[in-house]
Amino acid sequence: MMRKRLAIAQERDQQHPPGAAGVEGQEDQDNVVEIQSIRHLIDELERAEDKLVVVSFHATWCAACRKVQPLVQDEVKGREDVVLLKVRYDTNKQICKTLGVRKLPYFHFYRGSEGKLEDFSASAKTFHRIKEAIAQHGTPRCTLGENHIVPDELQELVGRPQDPK
């Protein structure tokens, strides 16, 4: 049963690759990025600087993920102060394992010099948690500290020296 669902999801992905033009909800959202690798995730976290970064861990075979993903994208649509990074479990298992993701859908919230702010699992039924986290952490701030947005665990995976803390 699980193999059949995975095969269907893989076939769908081959026809409509994630992040490709024409995929529903992706057309004009410059602040939504489908992560392809550990290096890509690190680069996008650094590029975000002091914006709120929502990292959404999901899978195509996960029904709860398919329901909540459009809600999250709608929530960040048009917001220049928020970036949504989508990490597909199937193609980024090492990232998920390293960051302790054991349940899908799962969300991490990061912000510049503050680093990781919080993380939790949420579904369409508990979507209010995501909205509340974006409202709480998405407020404008003036920070003077160094950017510590990239988790040490990810830096270790690519062999980068960690920021002294």
From TrEMBL:
Q: Which InterPro entries match?
A: Thioredoxin-like_sf, Thioredoxin_CS, Thioredoxin_domain
Q: Which Pfam families match?
A: Thioredoxin
Supply the Gene3D superfamilies for this chain: Glutaredoxin
Tell me where in this chain the Thioredoxin domain is found. Answer: 9-163
Lineage top rank: taxon: Eukaryota
Recorded hits in SUPFAM superfamilies, A to Z, give: Thioredoxin-like
Region Disordered, residue ranges: 7-27
What are the recorded Gene Ontology BP terms? Answer: cell redox homeostasis
Q: Which family does it belong to?
A: Belongs to the thioredoxin family.
Q: Would you tell me the protein name for this molecule?
A: Thioredoxin
